[in-house]
Amino acid sequence: MKKIFGLVLALAIISGGMVFAGGSSDTAASAGDGLITVGYAQVGAESDWRTANTESFRSTFVEENGYRLIFDDAQQKQENQIKTIRNFIQQDVDYIVVAPVVETGWETVLGEAKAAGIPVILSDRQMKLSDESLYLCWVGGDFLKEGRDAVDWLNNYLKENGRENEKLNVVLLQGTIGSSAQVGRTQGITEGLAKNPNYTLLAKQTGEFTQAKGQEVMESFLKAYDDIDVVFAENDNMAFGAIDAIKAAGKVPGKDVIIISFDAVREAFNRIIAGEINCAVECNPLHGPRVDEIIKTLEAGGTVEKIQYVKEEVFDAKNAADRLPTRAY
Ligand code: GZL
Known about the structure:
Largest sheet: 6 strands, parallel
Number of strands: 15
Shape: elongated
Helix content: 25-40%
Distance between the termini: 33 Å
Strand order of the largest sheet: 4-3-5-6-7-14
Structural class: alpha/beta
Strand content: 15-25%
Radius of gyration: 21 Å
Number of helices: 10
Bound molecules: beta-D-galactofuranose
């Protein structure tokens, strides 16, 4: 239940920041229990990354931290997320947080949240909106940079191993088509590959960010092409599936086929150390504390940056073993 006193929400964009000025002393705390009610519309439970992301919210948005969390898993379906957002509006939550499964199709429902005076914070993936005032701010990874970093890593790896003049055949396992993680990574990867005439991108296809689908698509690639040298998998779980397919085809992952993945979850570190994955480009899922900080700043009448990228690194055989003990996910 939202606060019972009429609270005029004044949202004004000031030079890229946002001022959220609660109109009364009882800002977004709900009447009675003083908790801030946050509705979180999560994508699904498709990957290790998503599990860590969900845990980050569940462990942050707890009563002892001043919150009541209403959580929903959309099973990777936009129509479920839209229903969930409408449900949050009905429940008159204090904040709506969305990890949008795809970039488009959100104007109407975000317009309804705005009309209800409920601030929307985007976490993880982005939305393409004609009206930027429909959301308060976004926190997540720089997907385009991640794609570029992946190709940069490949170029350096080949140079270090005296293979920079080799002609290499590449395949790409894409994430959910239309998600900003897929859009950004695919753009970064394909633009990077196109700059080097030694690379031939044989095929790209979505593996829906899942291990099973990643394996299935990799099996089809291996049937179609007998000379695949490099696999880019737009998340670790699809890389794990590709590894199973490559092994079943009698090839050695990480040696016969260079494997570059995204997310850098704990199991990817294990696979790097085992020599099955050559590179994992990090995409930090721990957005819970970042969104908590954003809400607490807003509640105190502060300003927040519209776009907030999280820190991300690239891991391979040189640093994975050292860094694994301190990894948080
Ligand atoms: C990235 C996130 C992606 C991960 C996948 O921020 O949206 O979705 O890379 C997850 O593991 O399924």
